[in-house]
Every structure is written in structure tokens, then in C-alpha cells.
Specification:
Strand content: 15-25%
Strand order of the largest sheet: 5-6-1-7-8
Number of strands: 13
Oligomer: single chain
Distance between the termini: 50 Å
Largest sheet: 5 strands, mixed
Number of helices: 16
Structural class: alpha+beta
Order of helices and strands: EHEEHEHEEHHEHEHHHHHHEHEEHEEHH
Shape: globular
Mean pLDDT: 87
């Protein structure tokens, strides 16, 4: 049994702008998004994907990220081209409102239209409950910008986010407040799994094959089996299904400082959830090669995605590890976990990975879920492969996946001259 009394209880608010791009366009035109049939998409392209639709369009059954030709012909609507500079202007105006209520250290900009606020230390100052403060902030955003929002409240970032995603849009004030006591009744009934923050369609399919169909199934699954199969990601999935999230807002705002190894790649075509994994894994292979060669380990991982120019934006987040590592599989699990959590299903044109908090590789933290003999064997293989690459170049040993059409590592190795930095 999990003793929730021992877990941190913060007052976290997450606020999301409803139909952000479409509502910005309506505000600019002095239109009501609840009565206006408006779509944000590239004009004159029948196969274009809608970036956003107004709440009115959603009420007619048209979702965001729908192709234009999929919108029923009986619906008459206006199409406007995306204007990223306009949306960034509105986003800054919204963030300015938040900064009037909390300090920079207690604010995390999750995306262009969504932010987390830790208001734990502000409730006495404002003499408001967390629910009242959330409503006050949302009302201020509406008054200053004309934008409509939804909010989730919880004792940690995870619970606040899931409350907003699942329930807030169905409440009178567009606010949902959940506590640890709500985990069995509100978390565990969530299905399909991809409705839950941080679980994508691919992970949903993998978990379904294990007989896991609801968040309750995941919460009650054998933790050791999940850890063995998915590493850090498996443990995080289990923790999140049980409402456990020890992350603090500062954890996501921290970027690798001082000495770090970074790798950023601008892609020659659009990638998505189905094929970006190969790029992420190849970049991590390059970075962990550098770690091992310089006898270093890292404890801060930064990971970012940039979307194609037509969509703009992206994300960059950091994760601090409990133990330093140069293990490719561990770092890969962390990056893929962040990808699953923050990816917004837009075409990808840039990937950035940074490994910071470097320290000398002269100590070893044992992993209870991995036999020490297996760890030694893996290290010997890695260093043997490294030695061959150091002598004959990075393309002297390649994986079968490096021959796939979406791989870029062979050509990149040629351009940078083999193994040299």
C-alpha cells in the first residue's frame, strides 16, 4: 500500500488556453469563438491539417489536427492561415499575467498555451483557497487578453495536469481539483491509456499487449516486471498511475549548466512519433560514446523538440537523475519518456539533447533491478565497440537500424570525419 500521507502536498495549478490559436484569431477579429466556425490551417490545401478549431467547431464534432477534407461538407466555416508571431505575442501576455501572481521560480512554461504554477506559498498572502486563486488568475487572463482557459489543481504536477485534461472542460468554471484521495476513483478508471498524460499511442499498444487496459490495471501491475521491461520509464509509468510525482517545477526549468555534452540535429524532412525514435537513439549513442571516452557520467538530461516552420514552437525540458550514469539505455528511456509526455503530434524538424551535471566515472551506483554481472557485461561490450570506433571510425560498426531510410547517422559520421569531434 502507498502511504500518501508521506508524499509532498503542494498547491499546483496548471492552466491551458482553450483552442488557443483559433481563439487568438477570434479575439483579433472581435468574434466569439463559441459561435464562430473558424479553422486555423494553411489555406487552399485540402490535405492540410488544422492547427486549431474554435470551440464552436468542436461542438459540431470537428477536432483539432483534422485534415481539411475530413470536415463534413455541410459545415460552413472560415479558414485563416496560422500566424505564429501573433500567438507568441498572446502567449507572452498570458505569462505576464502569471508573473503578476507568482515569481519566475514558481512558474513553468510547459508549452505556448499551457503553464504550471506552484502557489503553495502564496495562498496566505492572497487570503484565497487554491481554487479561488486559480479562478482569479483565469479571470485576469480573460479580462486582459480575451482568451478562455481551463485549469487543473492538485498536490503535484501530475495530478493537476490529469485533472485538467480529464475533468476541467466538463465543470462550470472550467476548473477541476483532485487530491490523492481521488486516485482510485478518478485515475484508475481512465481508458484508453493514451488519454493519460505521458502515455502515447505506441506505449498504449505495448501496455495493452501486457493486458493493461486501464490506469488502474497499470497501477496494480507488478512494478518489478515493468521496471525490467521499460527501465526508468516503467517505474515512472507505475508511479504516475498511482498518482506519485516527486518532480518540482524547478526540475523542469533547470538546463544543464557548466560543462555538458550536447547534440542538436536539424532534420532534412518531417518526422513524427513513428520514426523520430531512431534519430533520438542515434543521437544518444553519439553522446554516450563521448561520455565513456572521457570517463564521465551525467545526472542532468535536457531534451528538446522543434516543430516544422509551418507549425512553429516545440519544447525543451530537463530531468535530474537520482544517480549519475553513462548508460545508453537509461538515458534513452528518460528522453523517450519526456518525448511521450510533451510531444504534441506536430511534424518534427529538430531534436536537441544535452547531458550535464558531469562527474568522473570512478564510482558505481548499483541497480537493484539489474544483475551486477549483466552491468559488467554491458560495459565491456560498450567499451569494446568504442575501441573499434576510435581506431577505425564511427561507421566501422553500425546497427541494422542505421540502414533504415529514416536514419541519418551514417551520413553525419561521414561529414564530421568519422569519430573526431
Amino acid at each position: 500500500m502507498i502511504d500518501y500521507q508521506k508524499l509532498p502536498k503542494r498547491s499546483i495549478i496548471v492552466i491551458d488556453m482553450k483552442s488557443f490559436y483559433a481563439t487568438c484569431e477570434c479575439v483579433e477579429r472581435n468574434l466569439d469563438p463559441y459561435t464562430t466556425p473558424l479553422v486555423v490551417a494553411e489555406p487552399n490545401r485540402n490535405g492540410a491539417i488544422t492547427l486549431a478549431v474554435t470551440p464552436y467547431m468542436k461542438s459540431l464534432g470537428v477536432g483539432s489536427r483534422t485534415r481539411i477534407y475530413e470536415i463534413p461538407s455541410k459545415i460552413k466555416y472560415q479558414t485563416v492561415p496560422p500566424r505564429m508571431s501573433l500567438y507568441i505575442k498572446y502567449s507572452k501576455a498570458v505569462v505576464s499575467v502569471y508573473q503578476d501572481f507568482v515569481s519566475k521560480e514558481d512558474l513553468h512554461i510547459y508549452s505556448i498555451d499551457e503553464c504550471f504554477l506552484d502557489v503553495t506559498n502564496y495562498l496566505k498572502m492572497y487570503n484565497l483557497s487554491v481554487y479561488e486563486l486559480a479562478k482569479k488568475i483565469m479571470d485576469t487572463v480573460k479580462r486582459r487578453t480575451g482568451l478562455i482557459s481551463t485549469a487543473g489543481i492538485g498536490p503535484n504536477m501530475l495530478i493537476a495536469k490529469v485533472a485538467m485534461d480529464i475533468e476541467a472542460k466538463h465543470t462550470k468554471d472550467n476548473i477541476a481539483e483532485w487530491t490523492y484521495e481521488d486516485i482510485p476513483t478518478k485515475f484508475w478508471n481512465i481508458t484508453p491509456l493514451s488519454e493519460f498524460w505521458g502515455i502515447g499511442k505506441r506505449m498504449e499498444r505495448n501496455l495493452n499487449l501486457l493486458g493493461i487496459k486501464t490506469i488502474g490495471d497499470l497501477a496494480n501491475y507488478d512494478l518489478k516486471k515493468l521496471k525490467n521491461k521499460y527501465g526508468i520509464m516503467g517505474e515512472e509509468l507505475w508511479n504516475h498511475a498511482n498518482g506519485i510525482d516527486l518532480a518540482k517545477i524547478n526540475d523542469f526549468n533547470e538546463r544543464p549548466k557548466d560543462q555538458s555534452y550536447g547534440h542538436s540535429q536539424v532534420l532534412f524532412k518531417d518526422y513524427n512519433e513513428d520514426n523520430i525514435g531512431i534519430i533520438i537513439k542515434e543521437m544518444i549513442e553519439v553522446l554516450t560514446f563521448r561520455l565513456r571516452r572521457n570517463r564521465k557520467k551525467c545526472n542532468v538530461i535536457g531534451f528538446g523538440i522543434g516543430y516544422s516552420k509551418a507549425y512553429g514552437g516545440g519544447f525543451y525540458h530537463s530531468r535530474k537523475l537520482p544517480n549519475s550514469t553513462n548508460d545508453k539505455d537509461v538515458i534513452e528511456n528518460v528522453c523517450l519518456s519526456m518525448f511521450q509526455k510533451f510531444y504534441e503530434d506536430y511534424p518534427i524538424r529538430k531534436v536537441s539533447i544535452s547531458l550535464g551535471g558531469l562527474e568522473n566515472n570512478n564510482t558505481e551506483q548499483l541497480n537493484l533491478f539489474e544483475p551486477y554481472e549483466e552491468k559488467i557485461k554491458k560495459d565491456k561490450i560498450n567499451y569494446a565497440v568504442d575501441a573499434i570506433k576510435n581506431r577505425y571510425g564511427n561507421n566501422s560498426i553500425i546497427k541494422a537500424s542505421n540502414l533504415l531510410k529514416d536514419s541519418t547517422i551514417i551520413e553525419r559520421n561521414k561529414k564530421i570525419g568519422g569519430h573526431r569531434e
